């Protein structure tokens, strides 16, 4: 912010120097060139007279100073120009028009307007004098400083009604007071032509207003929907530039005519807000902060300096500085801001930022619009509404291109979001697969570990049942191979994002033969009996490796863990026409209501210690639930109560499979 204050101080001293210099220039009226209207046809030229009426009141009701200047011969210098030009100034300016009777006798019969193609001329007072009468009469006031409905000629362009005389030369004097620049060409046209032009011009402005408001509202909706601040920054920037454009063209005065206010008089405010919001949006749009700290600091300094000038303009200090000098300062800041926005976009583009490409492309249309207007102004291009408002159309196209960039950003963000979700899903699947793999490996490793330990700790016992021991070790190794092979296939499917389990017919009896072999030693260790009842020779729709290792091994492992020594685990198979129901019951402590509710809600039941201190992860039953969904089956947890023996409790797990 300190850089902003330094810049404002420098601009202030520079503008005060201009003020002192201008006061020296206007110290003598004789040094001011004349403005003369010398027509050769109805499309005539105006010659400028930058008349500064020092010592005259702000309304300049009496052009007596001009009369004295004419009498003293101070207007003898003839200076022919094609346009009227006044720079920024806090003083009065005047335009002197001479309608010679012999050349303008037709104007006495028709309603003609002297039209300047300028939309913010400020306060305009019009005086008329017929030479043979020698008295000035006040015609009225008009211009952008007057409410639209109170103007002498109600239009966007400055229009002056002319009335000549066939008996005498007629003089018009136009007094202007505004700190804005005034660069305009002048024509004499009929009243009908003037209002026809205004009507066609208004159609174009309404198209511009509708298109830009649609873009602004669309991006505001995106902001509220996506909660991304960049759409709010764009909307504020577009809105500021939108109101600046409406003020520059005088359309804002027309739109607010019913309120009797003059928004175009607040052009400085909207221009300042445009610099601030557009620079801020640009910096965020192509993320210049990530690529260049110096450019970021310069852009923020420009915003700070503009904010300071705006505060001065709105404060009581405004008369001291003068609106004209603040106008010069803001014009300088606008140029510097545009340059730095372009530089920032180029730097971001070179660092690979795609949004900078959209930004630079949008400014291409803005420059095309500006050059179109210049071509219209100097006469290279045809003079029509499109070329005359090239900057306006360039601004609209610029906003559309930037909006397309925002839409592209939505597409990119959506694509990145999908990629992130895929990666997150893949990561989650990997984590789950690792947990499952470690869980599955624990049972065959425990089996191998049991006989390995028996070999080294009690070699005689191992030798007495060596055939069975090696058979069990071989069985454990086979199960390890199956588990690793199964999970390797699952891992490949995760990479392809097509993880599936191929279902097929599985015989329940074969499954429990493997399960019993896996847990024979643990059953013997706690002297637990495993009884199989019901229709074991039933085929169910499942996948064998996961059914053995993820489903039944987990359930039987938990049943052994929580069963007391010397108890029984029952496995019963019941069948219906299309279903096979496998019921596994133990005589342990069973499930509490809280545990069953957790399981029903999809949560993991926290692991507890077994009857002889066995530990677990609590992950087993959640795996069973997941695979039962894969098999298109179901699982229910129940608390077992034996009607014959009320003291006998335990867990009861019901698995529902589709028969094949």
Q: How do the strands and helices of this protein lay out in sequence?
A:
Layout: H1 2-25, H2 64-71, E1 83-86, E2 92-99, E3 112-116, E4 123-130, E5 137-142, E6 158-162, E7 170-177, E8 182-190, H3 191-226, H4 229-249, H5 251-255, H6 267-285, H7 293-314, H8 318-321, H9 323-350, H10 354-378, H11 385-388, H12 390-457, H13 459-464, H14 466-495, E9 504-507, H15 508-525, E10 529-534, E11 539-542, H16 544-562, E12 568-575, E13 579-585, H17 593-600, H18 620-630, E14 634-641, E15 649-658
Number of extended strands? 15
Second rung of CATH, namely the architecture of the largest domain: Up-down Bundle
Q: What fold name goes in the CATH topology slot of the largest domain?
A: Rhopdopsin 7-helix transmembrane proteins
Portion in helices = 40-55%
The Cα radius of gyration reads 45 Å
Low-pLDDT windows of residues = 1-81, 494-498
Output the CATH class name of the largest domain. Mainly Alpha
- Please count the helical segments: 18
Proportion in β-strands: 15-25%
Q: How many domains would you count in the coordinates?
A: 3
The secondary structure category is alpha+beta
- Biggest sheet: strands side by side, in what order? 10-12-13-15-14
Overall mean pLDDT stands at: 75
Please report the distance between the alpha carbons of the first and last residues. 78 Å
């Amino acid at each position: 912010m300190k850089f902003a204050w330094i810049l404002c101080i420098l601009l202030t001293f520079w503008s005060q120097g201009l003020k002192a210099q201008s006061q020296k220039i206007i110290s003598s009226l004789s040094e001011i060139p004349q403005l003369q209207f010398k027509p050769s046809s109805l499309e005539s030229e105006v010659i400028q007279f930058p008349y500064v009426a020092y010592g005259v009141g702000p309304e300049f009701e009496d052009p007596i100073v001009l009369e004295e200047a004419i009498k003293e011969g101070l207007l003898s210098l003839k200076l022919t120009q094609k346009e009227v030009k006044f720079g920024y100034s806090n003083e009065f300016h005047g335009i002197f028009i001479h309608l010679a009777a012999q050349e303008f006798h037709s104007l006495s019969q028709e309603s003609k307007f002297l039209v300047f193609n300028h939309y913010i001329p400020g306060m305009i007072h019009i005086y008329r004098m017929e030479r043979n009468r020698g008295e000035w009469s006040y015609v009225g006031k008009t211009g952008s400083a007057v409410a639209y409905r109170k103007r002498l000629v109600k239009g966007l362009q400055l229009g002056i009604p002319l009335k000549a005389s066939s008996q005498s030369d007629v003089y018009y004097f136009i007094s202007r007071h505004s700190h804005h620049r005034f660069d305009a060409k002048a024509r004499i046209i009929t009243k009908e032509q003037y209002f026809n032009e205004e009507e066609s011009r208004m159609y174009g402005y309404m198209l511009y207003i509708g298109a830009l408001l649609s873009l602004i509202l669309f991006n505001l909706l995106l902001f509220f929907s996506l909660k991304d601040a960049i759409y709010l920054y764009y909307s504020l920037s577009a809105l500021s530039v939108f109101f600046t454009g409406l003020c520059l063209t005088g359309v804002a005065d027309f739109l607010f005519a019913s309120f009797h206010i003059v928004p175009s008089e607040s052009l400085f405010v909207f221009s300042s807000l445009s610099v601030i919001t557009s620079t801020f949006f640009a910096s965020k749009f192509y993320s210049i902060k990530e690529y260049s700290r110096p450019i970021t600091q310069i852009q923020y300094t420009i915003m700070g300096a503009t904010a300071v000038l705006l505060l001065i303009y709105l404060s009581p200090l405004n008369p001291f500085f003068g609106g004209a000098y603040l106008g010069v300062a803001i014009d300088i800041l606008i140029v510097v801001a545009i340059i730095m926005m372009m530089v920032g976009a180029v730097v971001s583009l070179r660092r690979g930022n795609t949004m900078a490409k959209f930004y630079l492309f949008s400014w291409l249309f803005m420059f095309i619009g500006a050059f179109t207007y210049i071509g219209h102004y100097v006469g290279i291009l045809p003079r029509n509404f499109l070329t005359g408002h090239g900057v306006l159309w360039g601004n609209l196209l610029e906003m559309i291109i930037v909006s397309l960039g925002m839409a592209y950003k939505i597409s990119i963000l959506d694509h990145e979001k999908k990629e992130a979700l895929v990666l997150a899903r893949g990561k989650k699947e990997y984590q789950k697969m690792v947990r499952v793999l470690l869980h599955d490996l624990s049972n065959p490793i425990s089996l191998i570990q049991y006989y390995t330990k028996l070999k080294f700790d009690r070699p005689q016992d191992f030798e007495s049942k060596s055939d069975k021991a090696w058979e069990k070790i071989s069985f454990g190794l086979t199960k390890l191979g199956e588990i690793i092979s199964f999970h390797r296939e699952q891992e490949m499917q995760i990479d392809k994002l097509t993880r599936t389990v191929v279902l097929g017919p599985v015989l329940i009896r074969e499954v429990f033969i493997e399960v019993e072999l896996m847990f024979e030693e643990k059953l013997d260790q706690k002297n637990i009996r495993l009884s199989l009842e019901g229709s074991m020779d039933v085929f169910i729709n499942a996948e064998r490796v996961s059914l053995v290792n993820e489903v039944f091994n987990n359930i039987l492992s938990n049943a052994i863990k929580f069963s007391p020594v010397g108890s029984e685990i029952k496995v019963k198979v019941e069948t219906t026409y299309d279903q096979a129901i496998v019921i596994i019951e133990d005589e342990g402590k069973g499930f509490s209501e809280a545990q069953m509710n957790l399981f029903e809600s999809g949560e993991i039941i926290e692991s507890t210690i077994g009857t002889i201190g066995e530990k677990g992860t609590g992950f087993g039953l959640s795996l069973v639930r997941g695979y039962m969904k894969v098999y298109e089956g179901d699982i229910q947890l129940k608390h077992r109560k034996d009607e014959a023996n009320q003291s006998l409790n335990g867990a009861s797990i019901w698995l529902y499979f589709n028969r094949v």
